[in-house]
Amino acid sequence: MLRAYDEQLRTDAETAGAVRVTRHGPLRLATFGGGRGFISYQDLDGADVTRIEELVSVAVAHFDADPAIEEVEWKTRGHDHAAGLHDALLRQGFAPEDPESIMIGEAVLLAVDVPLPEEVSLRAITSEEDVRAASIVQDAVFGTPPSEARVANQLRGIAAGESEMWVAEAAGEILSAGRIDLVEATEFAGIWGGATVESWRGRGIYRALTAARARTAIARGKRFIHSDSTEFSRPILERSGLVKVGTTTPYVRRRS
After folding, report:
1. pLDDT tens digits for range 182-192
2. N-acetyltransferase domain spans which residues (predicted)?
3. Domain 104-246, CATH number (from 3.40.50.360, 3.30.1490.100, 3.40.50.2020, 3.40.630.30)
4. Which of 22, 176, 198, 246 pairs as cysteine with 29 (C-beta 3.0–4.6 A)?
5. C-alpha angle 221-222-224 in degrees, rounded to nearest 5
């Protein structure tokens, strides 16, 4: 599963939807809407400390030359061989965020019936009003600032048939929300943004949303589900049969 992840989900799959992508050696330097830069690669071609320092410097110079870029993410993986990368990123102003678990498993393991509280229902959403409401819930749960670019990107993906967004509701109130992205030309679908209001946790809602998204993946011919999971969702996914195959840590550099 880790081999499939490295071969199918890195580089091109991570830069889909970018405004432009520039190649430098093993790196793909992707510019996304909303002032976001992203650095992807399948591996670093066995680069030594000196070469890695050079790669980081080139990436920083590339994005610094674009005044529209507000932040840049370099997504590291724990199983990569990247001597000196952590220190090189710190010297260039990147800061590590919390590591997440790379979870992968067969979609059929998640597509199960999950009992829900009687007052809770699930549905896929497509309207701008609903997507914005779901985004507000996710931002509140994760403690992230609102992002017009993120909402616009979610609406674009839904309209293009690349994504589905699901919510759980009770009495018209969104309790939980999550997205599934169908990764083109791969065996994978990714589940993202799973967030449940704290007072409703532990009642099967997140598992039910995950099951609904897994059924979408199967219907679209996908074999695997993957997710970069926080410690809230990792145990739930493990109980559903997904496996932790590694870790990923984003390093983020924000323009001062």
Report:
1. 999 999 999 99
2. 120-256
3. 3.40.630.30
4. 22
5. 160
